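Deliverable D5.2: sample structural annotation.
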Amino acid sequence: MSKGKQPGDGPAYPQVAERFSDLWQSIRHDGTQERPAEEQKDLIDQVRNALDRKASHLSDAKPDWIADSFALERITYQSENTLLLQLRHRDLGSLHALKTVPPASRNDAALLQRLREEAQVGLALRHPCLVETSALLRLADGRPGLLQPWFPQSLASLASQRPVTASHARIVLRRLLEGLGAMHVRGYVHCDVTPANILLENGDFETSRLCDFGIALKIGQKHAERGMSFAASREFAAPERMRDATAKPDQDIFSVGRLARRLASADEAQVTPRLADFADTCCHDDPALRPQSAMEALQIL
C-alpha cells in the first residue's frame, strides 16, 4: 500500500490550506458584509490570472503574452501589410484589438514607419466618436503594435445582414461628422471614410465610431510624400483624391456624402428629402460647392 497521503488524512499542506481559507474569506466578505456576486466573480478572475502569471515563470512553455499583460485570443484579419489580433487582458479579462504587421514584414522599414505614424495620429485624438489608440506596444520580435478597444462589428458587416434605416443612418452620419470635425480641428484628414471603418458595439448605432487612421494625412499633405501612389477606397474617395491632391477636410465630407447615398439606397422607402439633399450636396465633384467643414455638413443634415 502506498505510504502517500490517504483520503481523510487532512490537508497535505496545512499552511496553504489555511491561507486559501483566508483568501476565500476575503473574496466573499469585505470585512463588514458579503460582497455582491459580480464583485466576487471579478476577484476570482483576478486571482486566477495572477496564478497563471506566476505559473508561467515555472515552465519553459511560455504563453503568448504581449507586453506581459495581454493574451493572444485569435487572428481576426490578415493581409499582405496588416495583421489584426484579438487580445484579452490577463487581469481584467477585457478584449482589445492589436494592429501590427505580419511577421514576414517585420523588417519592412517603410511599413513599420507608417504604423508608427498611425499611432501618432491615434494617440493625438480623443473623442467619443473616434476609436482611440490606447498605446503603442512592442511585440517580442520587435514589431510595433497599436492597442485599441475591441469592437465586435463594423457598419459594413451590419449593413450586409440587414438594411440600415434612415433614422439609424442619420445617427451614424451625425456621429461620423462629429468625429471628423475633431480630426480636422487637430489638423488631420482621415482620407478613408468607408462602412468598414465605422465600428459599433452590439449593433447599437449610438456607439458608432470612426477607426483606422492608417492613411490619414495632415491638411495640405499628399500620400506621395509618404511613399504611397494611391491610398483610398475608390467608391468613396473624392475625384481629386484619385489624383493625389493635397488633403483637405472637404474630401472627407465627400466620402460622408457617398456613405449617405449607400445607406439611403438600402432603405429608399424611408429616405427623406433632407437626407437625399445632404448626400447630393456633400458629393459635388467641385470641391468649392461642398460643405467646407464637418460643422457645416452637420447643419445641412
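Annotation notes: The first helix runs from residue 14 to 28. The radius of gyration is 25 Å.
The annotation will be released with the project's public dataset once the embargo ends.
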